[in-house]
Amino acid sequence: MRVGSRDVGYPHLLAAGLLVAMLVGVGVGASTSSSTYGAFNSAWDGGSGVRDVAADAPAETALAYNTTAYDEGAAGGAVAFVVSPESGYTDAEAARIESFVRDGGTLVVADDFRPHGNDLLSRLGASARINRTPLRDDRHQYKSGALPVATRTVSDPRTNNVSQLTLNHPATVTANESTALVRSSNFSYRDADGDGELDESEALRSYPVVTSESLGAGEVVVVSDPSVFINSMLDRPDNRAFVEALVGDHETVLLDFSHATERPPLQVALGALRDSSALQLLFGGVVVGALAVISRRNQFEL
Hints:
Elements: E1 2-3, E2 6-7, H1 10-31, H2 48-56, E3 60-64, E4 78-83, H3 91-102, E5 106-110, H4 116-124, E6 129-131, E7 135-137, E8 141-142, E9 144-150, E10 152-153, E11 165-166, E12 172-174, E13 179-183, E14 188-190, E15 208-215, E16 218-223, H5 231-234, H6 239-247, E17 252-256, H7 265-275, H8 277-301
Parallel strand pairs: 3-17, 4-5, 4-17, 5-16
Antiparallel strand pairs: 1-2, 6-12, 7-14, 8-9, 9-11, 10-13, 13-15, 15-16
Helix pairs in contact: 7-8
């Protein structure tokens, strides 16, 4: 086979095909993630669906791998999502987030059995706390009592078009001075001993699973089940509508992955390139140099 002025044999074509396949595989691997709740994880436990909901809204979507992102832009038109952080925030990091909220930003903190969500709430000065006792409901549920359906909602912009939430092994929220936006049914209970059964020491009652409270000019929304935001649960009633209501008419949606352990290498590289003028100059120089070498080689061959 002849390509231009060269004879190309089938072994060359096969090698080229394998190289392309390898590069595609590397590219996909470098740009995706297997991290639970990850914005680039399209599997059942990923959070790519939340990123898609945000992208469909008339808002700019930003991924934050450092809390310095909270200092960028106007807080008053922004909502930030912190979903089950895997490590704790430092005082300096929490101070940035607190400033973001007090300046008018909305912060959504979703956690269940990890301690870092409560630690952040404490550092921010919010009153709501996540009670890490599992919640069950054997009457209002999806497939099992461990996947309760929260049936009680209040009229609020954060619950627009939301009449229920489908949960997945949730905790509950101790509201304190905050307002409960979504509560479990009156047939739910905290399974204190974890045996999956209602015992004499466990009472049937309704518990908050989503709360909201003002902090300065902003708002802190607490969700006691981060699984509401994973891909496999997003299309359960009315989880997608809940995410859409949280995004609302905000101008910026900030997805905080500053305390997630796994990050797509390509996204980290692109973020570093975007934030560093020196790297941009270096990358531009490499590209120009490579093009110059290719151009000179073609001239010699002609």
